[in-house]
Give the backbone structure.
Amino acid sequence: MKYSGFALLALIGLAIVQVAFIAQSENKATVEIRQEEYSGKEEALESRSADQVEVNETLVEVAHEVRKTLVIHRKKGQSETVSTVTGSVIEIQAPVSSGVQPMQFPDLSPAMVGGSAVYAGEPVTFAAVIENNGNGVSLDFNIKWVMDSSVVGYGSVRGIPANSRRSLQFPWVATPGYHNITLILDTDAHVNESDETNNHASYMFGVLESRLPDLLPTPISARIDGTSAEFESAVLNDGQTNSSAFNIRWVLDGLTVGYGSIGRIPSRSSSMENSRIGIEVERGLHNITFLLDADNHILESDEANNQVSLQFLIE
């Protein structure tokens, strides 16, 4: 059974009147019992009990209807007025707020921006953007850069406000081959996030062997006449780019016996410029070395192949 607002008020009023009526009836019944102690006593008690039960049932029914009304209000998002029934009295309590503030968490995620195609030996910079897509401010957190399963960088990033971003860079000297670099956020789990599964980003790239010059001398040839000797070597640029000018040195038994310069050599080309020397040598066993880029002015893909030596005997 459903009651309207006016019907509920009418029922509550009726209940109060009935309570008053029963109380008055109880007083009257008590007088009658005293006057007739032995006659009609059981009938008066039964009448009183029946009236009390009727009042209680009416109050319980009213309370049920009030609670149903509260449930309807709650579903509609209205503020509530909670009512309770104690004995024969309906108690009205203060409204209860239904608004609940959701918890706010950050959500950190990286986006990797890789460098352009690079060659071995050249510097390359990897860039990344860190976004906080959550509705809470993040604490400071640590990051880790991993190259091919090896940690190559570790650092700290200041906290990022909600719906904000921050940029990072990581420098590296390229080595030939295919590589994978990964940026991991909050690597030590200092930040409680709404999503803990999106804290890393990776970038795959390849590095060519080289586009640097690579200077190397050819084997030394010797022509000896008595104590006079002439030595010659060519210079080859085996790199993928041209070289600039560089200095050369001839060394006999640890002492410099010749010094000069050679001009630019194109990629995959050779030069005989200033690569011949004639000297007087004493009798005995000797060692002569031809050294390219003697002052280390040229950045090369291979710095370990810049010299050649020859051992010879003067009789």
In short: Helices lie at 5-35, 41-75. Confidence is low (pLDDT under 50) at residues 19-23, 26-39, 66-96. The first strand starts at residue 80 and ends at 86.
